[in-house]
Specification:
The protein folds into two domains: 4-8 and 389-501, Immunoglobulin-like (Sandwich); 17-262 and 288-383, TIM Barrel, CATH 3.20.20.80. The chain contains eleven helices and 26 strands. It has helices at 51-60, 106-116, 131-142, 148-155, 184-201, 222-231, 251-255, 257-278, 299-306, 325-340, 374-383; strands spanning 2-8, 12-15, 22-24, 64-67, 91-93, 98-100, 119-124, 166-169, 206-210, 237-244, 286-294, 345-351, 360-362, 368-370, 387-389, 392-394, 397-398, 406-407, 409-416, 421-428, 435-442, 449-455, 475-476, 481-483, 486-491, 495-501. The strands form six sheets. The chain has an eight-stranded parallel β-barrel, surrounded by six helices. Strand 9, helix 6 and strand 10 form a beta-alpha-beta unit. The longest helix is centred in the middle third of the chain and has 22 residues, at 257-278. Bound molecules: alpha-L-arabinofuranose (AHR). Alpha-L-arabinofuranose binds at residues 26, 69-71, 171-172, 213, 241, 291, 351-352. Alpha-L-arabinofuranose binds next to loops. InterPro entries: Alpha-L-AF_C, ASD1_cat, GH, Glyco_hydro_b. Belongs to the glycosyl hydrolase 51 family. Its EC number is 3.2.1.55. Homohexamer; trimer of dimers.
Amino acid sequence: MKAHVTAHKDYTVSRIDDRLYGAFLEHLGRAVYTGIYEPGHPTADENGFRGDVLELVRALNVPVVRYPGGNFVSAYNWEDGIGPREDRPVRLDLAWHTSETNEVGIHEFADWCRAAGTEMMLAVNLGSRGLDAARNFLEYCNHPGGSYWSDLRARNGRREPWDVKLWCLGNEMDGPWQVGHKDAHEYGKLAAETAKAMRAFDKSLELVVCGSSHSDMPTYPEWERVVLEHTYEVVDHVSLHMYFRNPEKNTANFLALNHKLDRYIETVASTINFVKAKKRSKRNVYISFDEWNVWYHSNKQDRAILDGGNGWPLAPGLLEDIYNFEDVLQVGCILNTFIRRSDVVKIGCIAQLVNVIAPIMTERSGPAWRQTIYYPYYFASIHGRGTALNLLVDCPGYDSEHDDNVPYVDVSGVHNEEEGTLTFFLVNRCGLEAIDVEVSLKGFAGGTVIDHQVMTHTDLEAVNTAADQQNVRPRSGSGARVADGVLAASLPAYSYQMIRVK
Ligand code: AHR
């Protein structure tokens, strides 16, 4: 099979916001406890943060981490996580039916972010609480001093404000499973008033309002219209979430799901434009895709805990999906979609970062290791920064459950003007044959292939483990070359590739 792609230097989508490659860390399962934080672990620092995990996170150059939830945030008292550790209460977490010791709170998370070289994206609780708790939390985090909450922060050991700019107004408030779930009008009004109060403190904050939890929600996309009609003038982003599943083991349908993702983005972008027009507004609102990943492998084993059958355990192994090679292809396609829609999607958070549906896993008292999906996320975060190109793709396709004519090659291209590099991320969705791809490079001066990484495997179900982290990993590719302004490469059946030209 053959595919032809045209990349033109002046035919661009958008400058990519670096925050497209963010991540999410929730007080859930072992994400925090025995994930990022495990005092006594051989690699732990003086704050109890695992050095092996920090090393893997730093390598990803994660721009922003959303915290503390997730469903967890909707019944969370942020004040439980401040002050002397021995005085912090143990609470029952209603979202995940576990016990929360509050050993890690905002101070510890801020210290961890600093050590990881990333920024905080904080969520306020608009489920069991509201405007008052949100404005106090904001003052605690961001006011320099001389007020009740900022002086308390100083007494708790942190004089300088953290100056967190990015705030989420609750989490998945359209979901009946959410503590304090509301209808679109109730939530829209609360989010608008909370946003106004937060902006009264600091006009320069970037605020994220809840959109739909996924595009199969019965309230989608009416939810977005109603919520935005209440909040349009005081928010900057609409939060969207999507998880990808393949319980039927239908690879063709699974790997076409990013087309459903693309429609979701397009529909919400259109709804944003509709409300903008209705409001006669000059303001632009974007999309924060702040939860996305494959999530289904662990569903069965989680049932007992989620049903409450295991009592209220401390940091149980929840949502510990073990990712396979097929998921590498899926994550590659998802990231390609975000790059192609970087005109409207400004923030993205892989959900999550450590142990819970995550690219990084840890063993209690043991090693930290890379799951299969670590790699496509790594390549996009490190080399997917710059300007997204609007590629013209000519390639045979197939019909899937949700979409017809899904091209066998899924591709995105990024021009990094500062480095003078062109990076292509390519997935071959076809399991039967290799595809010869030619990319015509228009308006770019020559160039040669400087990096070529390939991920293939004979078994779509192949996984990595703590004991074997080498089973699914990238290998240097060969055979990709540029001649007469054309990049030519062969994509093996079911493969992920990154090709960089300079
Ligand atoms: O990431 C796991 C959960 O998925 C989050 O807590 C929630 O927001 C979503 O439903």
